[in-house]
Amino acid sequence: MKKIISYFILPVLAVFVVSCHDIEVPITTQMTPDVYPQNDAQYAQTAGAVYSVFRGDYAHAYFWMSTLSTDEGILPARGGNWYDNQGYMKIHYHNWDKDHGWTNSLWYTTEKTIGVTNQAYYILNNVMPEGANKKTTLAELRMMRAISFFTMMDYFGNVPLDTLYGDFEPKTNTPRAEVFKYIESEVKKAINNLSEETGAKTYGRPTKWTAYSLLAKMYLNAEYYTGTARWNECIAACDAVINSGKFVIESRASYLKMFYPDNGPQMKEFIFAVPFDPSAVSYPGTNGMMYRARYDVPRSERAKFGLPFTPSAPMSTLPEFYALFNDLGDVRNGQWLTGLQFMDDGVTPVTVKTTKKGYDQFYTGADGGDSYTYQVNLTPDIIYRQNPELFDCGNDEIAWNMGYRNIKFYPDKTSTSRNQNNDVPYLRYSDVILMKAEAILRGGTATGGQTALSLVNMIRANRSTSEVWTSVTLEDLYKERSREFVYEGWHRNDMIRFGKFEGKWGFKTNSETYRRILPIPTDAMKLNPKLVQNPGYN
Amino acid sequence: MKKKWLTGHPYGDGLKKIMRIMRLTILLLFGCMLTVSANSYAQKTKLDINLTNTSIRDLFGFIEENSEFVFLYRNEDFNLTKKVAVNLKDATINQILDEVLKGENVSYNVYERQIVIQKAENSMVSQQKKEISGTVKDNSGAPIPGATVLIKGTSTGTITDMDGKFKFSVPGDSKILVISFVGMKTQEIALTGQAQINVVMEEETVGIEEVVAVGYGRSSRKNLSSAVTSVKSDDLNRGAISDVGQLLQGKVPGLNISSSGDPTRKATIIMRGASTLNSSQSPFYVIDGIPGADISLVAPDDIVSVDVLKDAAATSIYGNRAANGVIMITTRKGNKDKEQVAYNGYVGFENVSNQLDMMDAAQLRAFMTKNNMSFSPEDDQGGNTNWQKVIQRDVALSTSHNLSYSGGSKNSNYIASVTYIDKQGVLLSSNQNRIVARLAVEQMAFNDKVKFGINITNSNTKDTKVPQRNSALLQAAKYLPVTNSKKEDGTYFENFNHSGYFNPLAIIEQADDDSKINNLLGNFTTEVKLPFGLTYNLNVAYQRNSSLNGVYYNSYYAKNYNSAQFYNNPEPPSTHSIINFGSNGLANRSTYQSTNVIFENYLTWNKEIGKNSINAVVGYSWQDNTLGDGFMASNTNFPVDDVSYNNLALGNYSTISGYKVDFGDLNAYQRTRLISDFARLNYNYDSKYLLQASIRRDGSSVFGENKKWGYFPSIGAAWRIDKESFMQSQSIFSDLKLRASYGVTGNSSGFDAYTAQFIMGGLGTFYYNGQQMAAFGPNKAANQDLEWEKTSTQNLGLDFTVLNGKLSGYIEVYNKKTNGMIYSYAVNPVLVPAGSITANGGEMSNKGIEVSLNTTPVSTKDFTWTSNVNLAHNKNVIEKLTNSLFLGGDSVRITQPDGGGQTGSTLQILKEGKPIGQFFTLEYAGKNAEGVSQYVAKDGSLTTNPGIGTDYHYLGSPQPKLLLGWTNDFKYKNWDLNIFIRGVFGNKIFNATRADLFRPSTAHSSNILVDAGNESPTDLNVYKYSSRFIEDGSYIRLDNATLGYNFKNLGSYVKTLRIYSSVNNLFVITKYSGIDPEVEQGGIAPGVDSNNFYPKTRTVLFGVKATF
């Protein structure tokens, strides 16, 4: 027996005595909740994720859905280029469906922004010491979440109200009117803790004035969203901003500069803007950049604008929209590229050397391969020369010069890539002025001695050298808004409110009213089976 | 093989007798155990004996216990119970025996440690004798030292000397001589009076006494109850191959191996279908017992055998990492009886075997004229450039040299080898250069009870890669042939008016992309022989892999390509993204180190009780892995390009607006720990009924708090039918074995080490008070419930040998199922902002059948033909892709090649009930009356304007239905010829490359395929990713033909010499229209040809193998 112990048991024991069963490894190279966030700078960085993700699709999916669904812009295919499986065509024709890529992106990124905000709110609410900083930081997050829910309500109507991180229970859609109520209460909860300060310190984050401006926007559209008009509350919210004295309408000399690459906290009209920067790092999985010049500047004008890249230039406006720019004294005309193109000296023509067939792919002469040089001439109309069904203008110089181009967010020659430094305003002071004017026109009570006409003329005086208006109708106001806010993301909202969204422009004839709200994307319904599809899209 | 009998025999004399006879038989069969230096042990060993009144039998027992001597005798030959008294000090065995056996009518012979005692009248002493002599050689003509030569039926004999020669006296009436040597067929030679006998030994047929590595030990193949396929070094693929995966291609049924022509890339290996969707699909490698060793450490010439463990009964002893199968590689060891110096070398010449059939200048011009199109004047330089040729070498040269010397003494053996491989790729600048040095020493100690081993291998590789390889390949295909590669002034031609259009020669020549990889493996082993048949093993291994990478894009890139939107062109299913090349040169350097420390010890117990044979293993394994310990940095704005990436400090990024230094992956560093307790029991009764069971308890640090440990059991049984008495009367089967097994294996790799934990990472930047500030927060969804992914395999196998060994083979049927499949499941981003969570959810199944047949149709003295065919069929199905918490898994559309105007189009789908790689895309339905391509809409109608996703259909699978490997060996005298044919059948390939080069409408700015010549430029649908570009991927390839000649009688300095010539990829028979039907078969997007092709090549190689 002794032998058995010494010969057998001992070695078996030896195997296990030298064994260890500690399976944990320490984490030494990552930030765990034990070490982060712990101080004010880290709290700011935790909240920063919300601004980083908010920027994600703002100049992308959000821009396409707000702009290309209206008469502001069109992005046709040219020889199959930019056809992209009808991605842009469906927005123009108002025949998007629940599998439409950009609709899906808009839903996804906005929902993600809400999720990131809920998460940051949860972390900071737990770790931040009580005090003013905590109140302001959390109020800012609450406001950002309200803005995201506003986008969801505006574009998708009936959306689920997921407001608490850690609650993984899928939720069904909440009716639009209730979402409206929720946003309103959230903004009001946040408003007293938001900063009143403007300028670099709060730039890019929501202030008390952002909150009032958003309320104004909600009340202006309240009749459409909820069936109940709230003109006077809109006026009151506008007055809160106007009376703060923090904002000034930019002059004729500075209107266009407001959108230049070097814009920023010094812009006196910006109430809340989304800061873009080529050196910024995007939130993982989002675009986070803005490159308007890539879409709008003709390839032939790369040198003129000193671009570090060759733009692609598929996007242009429609002639019926450009017709609104009929006031020769209006500085806002300067945001368009039209007709014959010259270099900055205004004399040297912008030319392109090609062949006769390269200029016109339908040229049938035997000398089609001969060299041909011409001065670039942007033409107003978009014409399907190649294949109407495929939204195609052809793939030659004629086609690429179709359509007037908007360069409001002026090309950035200082960037080393196509990413531009131009910040994009979300809410501007001129919007507040025109909202108040519209609310009065629609039946609200004028306040502070301001009338609809005086308010509109406040804007016009800083935009045009032409005579001031002597009267203003809702139609006039619509046109003025169109000129003032083109490519800033509000035209769709305006067209719906003015009942123009079902109109005809470009090639679009669809007048289905259910298209005022977008379908719930298929992918979203897969992730949340409790979602119910919006009317008309089943 | 040496069995030690204990004293105090517990069994009766009858049993003992059987045992003695068995031992005698064993001696005769395995005379190979006798060594050259016969009787050296007997001469050296001195014993002290002081015994009184002891029986001869007990005396023998005493000697056996106190030495390594073993006695062999027949009970009836003499009186074992006779009492003797011995008192000797420092006596040799001869002195003892002379004294003890005094007066007995017996004689004895001492063969090293074996002592044979026989009746005196049978012994040679009393016979009339005659002298015979001879030599024993192997079939290559090399002498065999240490072969046993015996008179049949007796123990009279000798052992060959160093030169294979023997000489001894035989009794006059001796009739038959038996010559045996391990690994060789035992031969009998009739003695007909000849004095000189020359014997050529032949290698033993594989599969009879074959020993295979099974994990924590070795086992005889005939006693296996699990599915293990072994490939001997001679049967591995030949050619200029430095990668172990390619060596095995087509050799093992059930291994689906795909390789590209790129020398810097490893082949992809999938065993019995992918068992998981996560990135870890490749089998687990064990090199000389070291789990998880890097295969780049192995020089092909150092391999002795590769054992592929396929079913769970075989693999589950490596439970935690064995879900994808285990490949065990055994490398050469020194042989104490065979001191030798060996040299293997070859030189190979490689060229491109096929290229895309793009239009040449004349064809494209004709197309343009026909369709009323024209080139831009800048492009049309009147040239006729074959751009694919421009970026290729005419001939790529490969050389390999392997030099080794090995040997040993009685108590030690060693081998040292050094291998140098230099392999050019066929694309300009592509090259791999590798040096592997290896030293393995084994030393016996403590009276041969303890064996120490040290094995050190270092592999140093330098990869020179093609910068932006996939882009260069795509550009070479689409660049217009009418353009010359360089302008008259010697500068590159470029035309940035066409978007995404770059000179492929400039792409390659104006950048560097190199990697230096060093792999060090040190392994220390100790084996202690304990009493009672116990053996204790301790292995400690340390592996370090360090890489130093450098990439430089010179100022040409920055100046030209930044402005023209240079997209990378990644492998599917990744999507492309734009790249910025900084300003005045962009350098990127990184160095990372990975280390594994492995500690394993285990105890083995071998016991035979009558017909019962038991082998039990119990052990413990501890492993600590560190991955990605290092850093990356980049810089731009260099004063000169000449320094390339070699001096980051020369750059000055701070003056470049918006430039961001690339510090690499935030999650590069990962540390994991694996701990296991394991036990295995092998039991067989009479070598007839075999049973194996194992259990392993595995822990991994990567899982959630209470989910770290998992149990992985297995059980296997086999029945050697041929051993049954009722089989003894038949002569059809000489071997017949039925096997069945079931087991569970696990996977804990293929995802981030800290997935189960709450980690904060970078979430972009945001504006904060005048500057961009970094945002941090949870960048991944922590999953504290993450647990083991488990794969269970049922396996049924039948091994057989018929026709007297002329035909042998096996059939395997298996059913492999993965549960709790770990995958990054899509989740609702509003609930989990990361948008995805690594979790257990899905299920995957693979069912299949494998057949392997070996035949020797012809076997004559001069000519032998052996043939091996292996066939495998596997059916892969994703059974489930969701779990109740994460509903978003099913129906994930993947693989977006992003051809122009096709953003959002996808080729494949991950879907329940479908295989991995299921094609899901547009269904082409010919052209409508206007000549526009149309497609089948969701409702079955035809449309020219289909919706992505909505109008998609299931259109075939990239998974092959049948894999074939067919080897033929012909030997004629000194010549041998090996022909290896490989085939893949029943799979589909999505030829996205073809779709992207099928654009007649842009033929003026981007070349098109010849067979797009009849398409109309007005049909803008023509290139849409659709079933039109899904092709049959079946092929048969003559993979290798090797002709060799073995020189004989080379004199005393050169022992063996072989020269050979080998041709790889002689031809391919396929209907596939792309460059080569062998496209990537691994990952979640197999079977997609999407601009990621590296040209397939044909190699001609001349080699020499010699031993001295």
Detailed description of the structure:
The complex is a heterodimer of chains A (538) and B (1108). With 538 residues, chain A is mostly helical. Chain A contains 19 helices and 8 strands. Chain A has helices at residues 2-17, 40-54, 61-67, 89-93, 101-127, 132-156, 176-191, 208-220, 222-226, 231-244, 292-296, 319-322, 356-359, 397-400, 429-441, 452-461, 474-485, 491-497, 522-527; strands spanning 270-274, 336-337, 339-340, 351-355, 371-375, 377-378, 405-406, 424-428. In chain A, the strands form 4 sheets. In chain A, strands 1-8 form a two-stranded antiparallel sheet. A two-stranded antiparallel ribbon of chain A has the order 2-7. Chain A is globular, with a radius of gyration of 28 Å. The relative contact order of chain A is 0.14. The mean pLDDT of chain A is 93. Chain B is mainly beta and 1108 residues long. Chain B contains 12 helices and 55 strands. In chain B, the strands form 13 sheets. Chain B has a 22-stranded antiparallel barrel. In chain B, strands 15-20-21-18-19 form a 5-stranded mixed sheet. In chain B, strands 8-7-10-11 form a 4-stranded antiparallel sheet, with no helix packed on it. In chain B, a hairpin with a 2-residue loop joins strand 29 and strand 30. The longest helix of chain B has 17 residues, at 13-29. The radius of gyration of chain B is 34 Å and the shape is elongated. Classes of the chains: A mainly alpha (538), B mainly beta (1108). At the A-B interface, helix 1, helix 2, helix 5, strand 4 and helix 13 of A face strand 29, strand 30, strand 31, strand 35 and strand 36 of B.
What's a quick, concise take on this entry?
The complex is a heterodimer of chains A (538) and B (1108). Chain A has 538 residues and is mostly helical.
What structural category characterises the helix and strand content of chain B? mainly beta
Structural class of chain A: mainly alpha
Overall pLDDT of chain B, averaged? 86
Percent helix of chain A, as a range, is 25-40%
Count of DSSP H/I helices of chain A: 19
> How big is the Rg of chain B?
34 Å
One letter per element, helices H and strands E, the order of chain A comes to: HHHHHHHHHHEHHEEEHEEHEEHHHHH
> What's the arrangement of strands in the largest beta sheet of chain A?
1-8
Sheet having the most strands of chain B: 22 strands, antiparallel, barrel
How many β-strand runs of chain A? 8
Secondary structure: number of strands of chain B: 55
Q: Which pair of chains forms the biggest interface, and how many residues does each contribute?
A: A-B, 118 and 108 residues
Assembly state of the chains shown:
heterodimer
Low-confidence stretches of chain A: none
Shape of chain B: elongated
Helix amount of chain B: under 10%
Fraction of residues in β-strands of chain B: over 45%
Please give the radius of gyration of chain A in angstroms. 28 Å
Intertermini distance of chain B: 30 Å
